[in-house]
Design a protein that fits this description.
203 residues; alpha+beta; outer membrane lipoprotein receptor (LolB), chain A
């Protein structure tokens, strides 16, 4: 039996064949990654017409030693109904419906028209616009950039208006496929908040 001895020419030829095979295998993967963009993300999010999630939110405030933590539930119905029900540490609700924001704390009820508060409207639209998959609405107030893949993505929103920049430095919204999993807000004064979101199973 003859023993096949390796030679530089043989090894080089085999290596080229292996690299060529790997390159062919990677072509579809690279192509898919190149196609992933903000429009695809928006289309995927727009498919979700209603959602029910739990949340845990931590607010990091410079004058406090520990973050302030709250938790509760989120409800969303496309295109513009968003409800945040805080259960702990104190019951509180915020309901956005067709441009009207209602805040309830105990017996106190505050009703605001978002059109009367441009900075508040821009902030609300950052969340509502993302959930609704409305790119044009987002780009009226923010410069958008997207990192990651369809499986695990991060959308960054940078305010365009100077008044908004004086309040919010940036907003980062991260998700898995068509589900928003976290919302991180960094304020201009250095304070920040991080909300972790977990989609609940439909009843």
């Amino acid at each position: 039996m003859k023993t096949l001895r390796s030679s530089p020419v043989f090894s080089l030829r085999v290596m080229r064949q292996v690299f060529a095979a790997l390159a062919l295998m990677l072509v579809p993967v690279i192509g898919h990654a190149a196609e992933w963009d903000i429009d695809q993300l928006m289309r995927g999010l727009a498919q979700i017409r209603s959602d029910h999630s739990s949340f845990v939110e931590k607010k990091f405030i410079a004058i406090l030693d520990k973050p302030v933590e709250s938790s509760g539930e989120l409800f969303y119905t496309a295109p513009d109904h968003l409800e945040k029900r805080t259960i702990k540490p104190k019951p509180e609700s915020m309901i956005l419906d067709q441009g009207t924001l209602v805040i309830e704390r105990g017996r106190q009820v505050h009703r605001l028209q978002s059109q009367d508060y441009p900075e508040l409207a821009a902030f609300i639209d950052s969340i509502r616009g993302t959930l609704a998959g409305e790119r044009k609405a987002l780009e009226r107030n923010y410069r958008l950039s997207l990192d990651g893949t369809a499986e695990h993505w991060t959308l960054q929103l940078l305010p365009l208006d100077e008044k908004m920049q004086a309040v919010v430095k940036r907003i980062r919204i991260a998700g898995l496929r068509d589900a928003v999993r976290s919302i991180e807000i960094t304020q201009a004064d250095g304070d920040s908040s991080l909300m972790l979101i977990e989609r609940l199973a439909a009843p």
